[in-house]
Each structure stands twice: as C-alpha cells, then as structure tokens.
Amino acid sequence: MAIWLNKDSKVIVQGMTGATGMKHTKLMLGDGTNVVGGVNPRKAGQKVDFDGTEVPVFGTVKEAIEATGANVSVIFVPEKFTKDAVVEAIDAEIPLAVVITEGIAVHDTASFWAYAGKKGNKTRIIGPNCPGIITPGQSNVGIIPGDITKPGRIGLVSKSGTLTYQMMYELRDIGFSTAVGIGGDPIIGTTHIDALAAFQDDPDTDLIVMIGEIGGDAEERAAAFIKENVTKPVVGYVAGFTAPEGKTMGHAGAIVSGSSGTAQAKKEALEAAGVKVGKTPTETAKLAREILSA
Predict the structure, then answer these.
(1) How many CB atoms lie under 10 A from the CB of residue 69?
(2) What DSSP string runs through 75-117?
(3) What is the rounded end-to-end Cα distance, in angstroms, of the chain?
(4) Which residues does CoA bind (predicted)?
C-alpha cells in the first residue's frame, strides 16, 4: 500500500522536452516510474529517447490521457506558463497533478486552486514549489532522489524539499511507505492535513513524520487535526527555531508575525496534540526510531 502513487500509476510530464523536464524524466524512469508520455503542443507526435525507452509527446493532457490512460501529471513548466498547464490538467480531470515549478505568482496559485474547486476537486494538486512524491520501490514523481531510502512503513509529509531528503536519508534503514513534499508557498494544494488523513487510512503506514516550518498556522491546524483524528504515532520537526523574528526565511510562506507562526508556538501546539517534536532533523529521526522499536 501507499498513498496517491504506486507501481500502477501512469505518469505524464508536462514540460518533458525542456531541459529540466528531460533531466528529471530520465531520473524518474531510472527509478522505475511508469512515464507514459510528455506534453508539448509544439512537439506533438514526436518521441523522445531516454536510454532506449521511447516516450511519446502529446499536444494536450487530454490527448495523453486518452492515448495512455495516464492518471498522474508532473509539471515542469516555467512559472509564467504554469497556471495554464495546471488548468489544462484540471480540465482533463487527471486525478493527480504534481507542480514542481517554483516562483509562481501567489495570485496564479490561488486562481488554479480555486478553479480545481469549481471543477469539483477531481484533481489533487501537490505543490507548487515542491519536490514531489515518492513511493520507494514503486514510483517517483518529481525531483526527490530515488536512491536515498527504501520501502518501509513510515509516512512522511514535509514543507521543505531538502528536509524531506534529509529525513529520508536519516531513516533509510527503516524506509518509507510514501514521502510527500507539499511545498512551502503561502498557498498550496495538498496540505499536511490531507497527507495525515491519507497516512492514517493506509494500513502499511505505522508512523508519520511531519515536517513544518515557521510562518502561517498550517502546523497548528495540523495539530488540531491530529488530536481529533489520528491514532498512529506522529513525530514532528519545525524548521526555523533560530530564525530572526519578522524575517522571510527562504520559502515565501515562512513569515512570522509577532508570536504567531514561530517555531516554538508550533512545537507547543503539536506537543499538546501528543506529537513528539525534535529540535533538529536528527533528533526527530531518533524519536521515530524509539517509537518504532518500543
């Protein structure tokens, strides 16, 4: 079992023929991902050879779905074109769209997120500005290194790409059911709560690791959800304990106002919900080990 992505997932790549799309399509194929097509209206009908694997290019997401049965799209499109690419994926009703692109205007994200809702939320959006999603040993969609961990029984949801990789590496000997990087922008599609609910319902996930960061109230809302709905053990880490107050730190969403949104406030909210919170990624991994070995 896994959440949202498995060995049967059929993946298309919007922006596959660009430099970034080409690079990561090759890596995803190397990880065993079933990439069935790319989308570029200017190159429709062509095929791209990835070390002996020929991947066809389609003019639209709809055409790609009709031809291949694709149910996942990963989007490597420049930020000024990303909104249109996501809207196209939503119109085609693809079940999962993973938006890797960073630097997207918040207004554009708000627009395509609202559009997804208007269309009945038939497309789950992960991102934008995220590393993607990986179910180790089955499928890898995005830019997460596929060789730093193995299949296991930990579920991971994280705002930060690099901390996703570090946690996967720290717990590589135990392994992961699925790891989801949700992105750190002020507006994102899939949230901590969405992933927590999915991991709670996944019989092959025994423990959940949740990584947040300063700014906003997503972690506080996740804490309230955990308290009411999650029975599995959850271990947390909040990036930004040493961040200067009032300063934007890396991610556009990491802005602290007064005491609201601080790492300490988030830590306290999570601990009040029964979540063990580490002060560093390594300490967080240690807490996960202790729970699983108890």
Answers:
(1) 9
(2) E---HHHHHHHHHHHHHTT-SEEEE------HHHHHHHHHHHH
(3) 23
(4) 17-20, 43, 100-102
pLDDT score of 194: 98
Q: Is 213 helix (H, G, I), strand (E, B) or coil?
A: strand
**Residue boundaries of the structural domains of the chain:** 11-126, 148-293
264 pLDDT more than 90 = no
* Separation of alpha carbons 199 and 105, rounded Å: 30
98, 133 in Cβ contact below 8 A?
Answer: yes
Say which DSSP state 202 is in: -
Instruction: Extract the annotated binding site for CoA.
Output: 17-20, 43, 100-102
Distance CA 10, CA 156 (A): 22
In angstroms, how far is CA 265 from the centroid of its own chain? 24
Place of tokens 């791209």: 48
Burial (CB count within 10 angstroms: exposed 0-12, middle 13-18, buried 19+), residue 99 = buried
Query: What percent of the chain shows pLDDT beyond 70?
Result: 93
Report pLDDT for 240: 74
Decide if 11-126 and 148-293 have a common fold. yes
- By annotation, the residues acting in catalysis are 251
Q: Residues 58, 38: contact at Cβ < 8 Å?
A: yes
Nearest to 211 by CA among 282, 142, 259, 163: 163
Give the pLDDT band (50/70/90) at residue 26: very high
CATH architecture of 148-293: 3-Layer(aba) Sandwich (3.40)
Average pLDDT of the chain is 93
- Check if CATH label 3.40.50.720 holds for domain 11-126: yes
Which residues on adjacent β-strands are paired with residue 58?
39
Indicate whether 251 pLDDT > 90: no
